[in-house]
Amino acid sequence: MNGPAQPIRTLEKRFYLAPEIYRREQQGVLARTWQFACHASQVRNIGDYFSFFVAGENLFCLRGKDGKVRAFYNVCQHRAHELVSGMGSVRSIVCPYHAWTYELDGRLRGGPNLRSVPNLEISDIRLAEVRIEDFHGFLFVNLDRNAAPMNDWFPGVRDELLEFVPHVADLEPLEWIKVFEKCNWKLSVENYSECYHCTINHKTFATGVVEPKSYDIQPQGYCLRHTTRCQNLDRMSYTVDLEANSRAGEYSSWYLWPMFSFQVYPGNVLNTYHWRPTDHCGVDVVRGWYTVRGRDSTTIRRLAVQDRETTLEEDIHLVESVQRGLASRGYRPGPLVVDPSGGLNSEHSIRVLQQWMREGIEDSAENSEGVDSVARQHSAMEDPQSVPGTHN
Q1: Contact status, residue 354 vs residue 187, Cβ threshold 8 Å
Q2: 86-110: per-residue pLDDT in tens?
Q3: Which residues fall within 8 angstroms of residue 332, CB to CB, at 6 or more apart?
Q4: What residues does 289 pair with on adjacent strands?
Q5: Based on the domain organization, do 42 and 130 belong to the same domain?
Q6: Cα–Cα distance between 368 and 353 in angstroms, integer?
């Protein structure tokens, strides 16, 4: 006869402290999930490029002459020099090392003295391409060629976001705010994925933006969906026009596993989070704020300042304290507060999130070679139950 169910415990400290765990994540889960690259407006014109890192890989997005945005590994196919840095615009991609030149679609055009090489077929050489998807103007990449499309990973999110922000196609970044947190990336996304701590630590957010008593978080595919109503209008920290949209009086967030979140403040104000780990104990957290065509807005600028000085600053101290505490000999994995009815004071969302984290580590251990590479075709025989959203 089975005894009473035991409390669900948090992840063991090694998940946050061990460099080896982070190395396995880079080879596995971080390389086989959809990761934010940039906004489409950052590569608006033909030849515009934007470089970034995912799972330790240097990549860049580039708009071709056909208007299509492609993503490439940022490495020359000659002797591996990096091709571009930062962001900018080019007529063609010229390697700084030996001036091998590529078309905007990744095909090699030529290079110094290549005609002297016997049997060299220039047409066979092209930059290594990466899968890319446009999600309402937000560009995501996945290093796994066999991964399912984003709609399979995050069912309903594309349509729901459009319902909350009907003008999302017209939005462009107004401001990016980046902060560095001295903690493992999983601690930062865990902190984002529960509001058990909100009324205690985020007074401005909990009294001037949302109504905490109606707050809940539920899984939706590999998305955690946050929902609540706005605070009483006389207590809001900014003006909200409830007539602007049927969803104007609501707050919603869609956290897309593992490192991106769309967040809609009351009044249909879109903002985002994305995470970029620097190593096993550091992560850059980037907040994006958006307006139509990127036009200036006093309200959005004030919200960005308010958020940076309150919620973001408060979270830095919380997650860095937890990172230090995990290293203590006095800590053992504690019980999660999982309320079957959900709600604000429950960590049921963390239970789900930590299961995804466990799956990611187990998958990377079983598939130590990680992501498919240019040199070989990655096997398509993974178990879809252990690899989120992957097709056989």
Answers
A1: no
A2: 999 999 999 999 999 999 999 999 9
A3: none
A4: 175, 271
A5: yes
A6: 22
